[in-house]
Amino acid sequence: MKTIGFIGLGLIGGSIAKAIRKFHPDYHILAYARHKETLAAALNSGVIDGVLEKEDERYKICDYVFLCAPVEYNIEYLKYLKTVISDSCIITDAGSVKGPIHEAVEKLEMDHCFIGGHPMAGSERSGFSNSSDHLLENAYYILTPGGQVSLNKLTEFSELVDSLGAIPMVLTAEEHDFITAGVSHLPHIIASSLVNLISSLDNDAEYMKTIAAGGFRDITRIASSSPVMWQQICLENTKNISTVLDEYIRMLIQIRCSVDNKDADQLYQLFAASRDYRDSIDVTSCGLITKAYVLYLDIVDEAGGIATIATILAMDNISIKNIGIIHNREFEQGVLKIEFYEEDAMKRGAALLKKRNYIVYER
Ligand SMILES: NC(=O)C1=CN([C@@H]2O[C@H](COP(=O)(O)OP(=O)(O)OC[C@H]3O[C@@H](n4cnc5c(N)ncnc54)[C@H](O)[C@@H]3O)[C@@H](O)[C@H]2O)C=CC1
Ligand SMILES: O=C(O)C(=O)Cc1ccc(O)cc1
User: Fold this and answer.
1) What is the pLDDT of residue 321?
2) What family is reported (predicted)?
3) Is this complex scored with an ipTM above 0.95?
4) What is the C-alpha separation between 65 and 74, in angstroms, rounded?
5) Over the stretch 169-185, which tens digit does the pLDDT of each residue have?
6) Which string of b and e fits 168-205 if b means at least 16 CB within 10 Å?
């Protein structure tokens, strides 16, 4: 039996707490969050067992404290936690950048009890209401141990992460910040700048926005993420982001040359090399790329069409993650797209709908 404390219970704090509740129902989970409604929702749904105050003696009984608030607050809480926690406590965080928190930990001489954490899973949504007990499933969870952390503490935390269905990976804070600048921070900048570019190029009738095809939608989903969070990430990981942006700008200039020069070989190489590398990414691990369980089907455009399908699925307890009409016909048939949480649900859904004579496309 362990006691786990949370400070901040939004998308990530909430998802970690829910996963702990699911896999370790006997653990005692306590939390502090800024909004009382969040704590009430967590308590009422049984995710947490008790509410902590901002400053609370009960941090002393915690085996782990998860800092899941924005980074500047996490640093403030570290100072207070130093005065109350027990010797065996492991403090961790969930921040997307590891350099600044490790700097603070070193200054406070807390690097014997701090193991930085970063689940490489998330979504463009935020808040406890969007958290889920399966967000961490099959996702890499980076651990960045403080310089003085014992192997025992690191092993214990790594085992906890593993028990939640995530894949622990130990890196230094420096390695982490360069890698994530490339695979997470740059992609968000690209998505947001592409959306802003199209917004500025579009005409008054917004034709670009209206007909934006699947490719545009796929690579810009993350442009809907929290502006405050991404502003903070850019302010914290400035040097690494600037380095990878430089490389990217260089590559874009090369591509423009290939286009201007109608350099067929270079253009083919661009798309062939990216296809091969992208296809080699393991889609069974969530990593940064969440596997989508999607069906397409033809439906007649009439009132109640979607409701009927949702009812057929609900009667078999199949939850729908997302459902919607595709207006841009990228392929000839299949205008309704249904996304499921799990592969099994998708397969059962396909079978049920086929039985009812729907034409189902599994891609
Ligand atoms: N959103 C994502 O996809 C991912 C986010 N992260 C990192 O996780 C951390 C948390 O992000 P999210 O959970 O997405 O944000 P969120 O906005 O969903 O949750 C943040 C939580 O912190 C609380 N909070 C804010 N100020 C506070 C304060 N002064 N004291 C106590 N609680 C306070 C908020 O009320 C909220 O419950 C960030 O550092 C982010 O970089 C890491 C991986 C993925
Ligand atoms: O939604 C997505 O695909 C993400 O990229 C989520 C994400 C956001 C921030 C992180 O630090 C890690 C993962």
Assistant:
1) 80
2) Belongs to the prephenate/arogenate dehydrogenase family.
3) yes
4) 11
5) 999 999 999 999 999 99
6) beebebeebbbbbbeebbbebbbbbeebeeeeeeeeee
Output the CA torsion 325→330→333→335 (10° steps): 0
* Residue 286 near ligand 1, beta carbon < 6 Å: no
- Each residue's pLDDT tens digit, 41-50: 999 999 999 9
Tokens of 89: 């406590």
Residues 6 or more apart from 287 whose CB is under 8 A from it? Answer: 120, 139, 140, 281
CA 271, distance to chain mean position in Å, is: 27
Give distance in angstroms: CA of 7 to centre of ligand 1: 9
| β pairing state of 336-340 and 90-93 | unpaired
Question: Which residues lie below 8 Å from residue 79, measured CB to CB, with a gap of 6+?
Answer: 108
What is the per-residue pLDDT for 299? 77
Nearest CA to ligand 1 atom 11: 12
Q: Which residue has its alpha carbon closest to ligand 2 atom 7? A: 122
Task: Please tell me the residue having the least CA distance from ligand 2 atom 10.
Answer: 96
pLDDT in tens, 240-291: 999 999 999 999 999 999 999 999 999 999 999 999 999 998 665 554 445 5
Q: Ligand 2 centre and the CA of 119: distance in Å?
A: 9
Please tell me the predicted confidence (pLDDT) of residue 291.
59
As a whole number of angstroms, the distance between CA 65 and CA 184 comes to 26
